[in-house]
Amino acid sequence: MAGTGLGGNLASPWAQLLERLPLGRDRPMLAYGCTLAICAVSFSVRMLAEPLLPAGFPYVSFFPAVILSTFLFGVRPGILAGILCGLIAWYCFIPPYFAVKITGGIVFALGFYSVVVVIDILLIDWMQRANRRLADERERSERLAERGELLFRELQHRVSNNLQVVSGLLSLQMRGISDETARLALDDAARRLALIGRIHRQLYNPHGDQLHLAAFLTELGADLVEASGKAGVDFRVEAPEDIDLAPEAAVPMALIVAEAVTNAIEHGLAGREKGEVLIEVWQRKDGSLDIDVSDDGAGLPSGFDLATTDSLGLRLAQMLARQLRGSFILSGGTRTVARLRLPAH
Fold it and tell me: What is residue 210's predicted lDDT score, i.e. its pLDDT?
């Protein structure tokens, strides 16, 4: 997170110093002592520069002393510096030198000096107050952001846990059903709910940033292979590292890919402990995205037609692909390939 009330880097020592100004608020005697030292230095500089300066510049070294005292130590030390420097300039550098004399010109010069000093002090105080308010607002915003992130994380876990609970309830209910078709339907529903729960955990991102597709698919596929119990399956993902996916498209995309991977393991590699499942991601010239899930298994059954299949999972994959304004196809050959094509965004 970058930026401060003055536009600097939060972590820089300079920005941290600015946010602590004025210094010495809890040690006023130190602040006043430093102010007197600054005034003494200004007087010394003015005395040393006296031979080099033309007549008529009595305050030239004292304005910086007032500004520096106010900037470092606040309004009251700044007022002290303004009064002290004004008196020194009047007594030592306005003719007649080292004598108290009041004339119209001297009154005008002192009045002009006073106006400039007051403006300097007010401007510095206003800027420091504004900077402190900005620092307080930033701190408040950071606390709210942390709280929002905590709530988002809690929501994600609750959603995921609730889905896992529902999945577990369906699995328990399945044990009391004797009809094989109903058992398979409940088992399928429980498996998909558990999958959605795992996807929600992977999608944790309170800022709504784009999802790194390669890492997401790698983790998703590894979970699916582990859940299948087939340790001999060689699972790989080949995808460019720079391809991202919007979070709102991640769940339907993940369900489609999960269906394709599960189908490859359960049907393509049926009866085999070893085999290969490969996910390849291609960025086409028109900006659309192809996600291919292929396996080296038994291939598609003779006469297979995706449009007329009675597989609930494959029908769900087609429906979700249309929801994403894309397409889902299955093709056979030396390898069975399930292709999800997503339009350019």
Answer: 67
**Whole-Å CA distances, 88 to 30, 47, 76, 83, 92:** 22, 11, 18, 9, 6
Res 57: pLDDT = 82
Give the residue numbers spanning the domain of 298: 208-345
User: What b-and-e string marks burial along 234-255, b requiring 16 or more CB atoms within 10 Å of the CB?
Assistant: ebebebeeebebeeebbebbbb
pLDDT of residue 206: 56
What is the pLDDT, as a whole number, of residue 298? 85
pTM, to two decimals = 0.55
Where is the domain boundary, 114, 145, 176? 145
Query: C-alpha distances in angstroms, 336 versus 66, 167, 273, 301, 329?
Result: 82, 30, 18, 11, 11
pLDDT by 10-residue block (mean), the chain, 345 residues:
43 71 86 95 92 83 94 94 95 87 89 95 93 88 84 73 80 82 82 77 62 88 86 92 81 90 89 90 91 92 87 90 94 91 86
For residue 289, the domain's CATH number is 3.30.565.10
Q: Is residue 227 part of a domain?
A: yes
DSSP string, 172-213: HHHHT---HHHHHHHHHHHHHHHHHHHHHHHT--TT-PPEEH
Q: Do residues 254 and 340 lie in contact, with contact meaning Cβ atoms separated by under 8 Å?
A: no
Q: Give the H/E segment covering residue 114.
A: helix 104-175
In a domain, 83, yes or no: yes
What is residue 10's predicted lDDT score, i.e. its pLDDT? 44
Q: Please state the domain count of the chain.
A: 2
CA dihedral 240, 246, 251, 257 (to 10 degrees): -20
Tokens of 222: 């590894």
User: What is residue 235's predicted lDDT score, i.e. its pLDDT?
Assistant: 94
Strand order in the sheet with 274-283: 232-238, 274-283, 289-295, 336-342, 327-331
Among 122, 145, 168, the domain boundary falls at 145
Establish if 313 belongs to a structural domain: yes
Would you say residue 183 lies in a domain? Answer: no
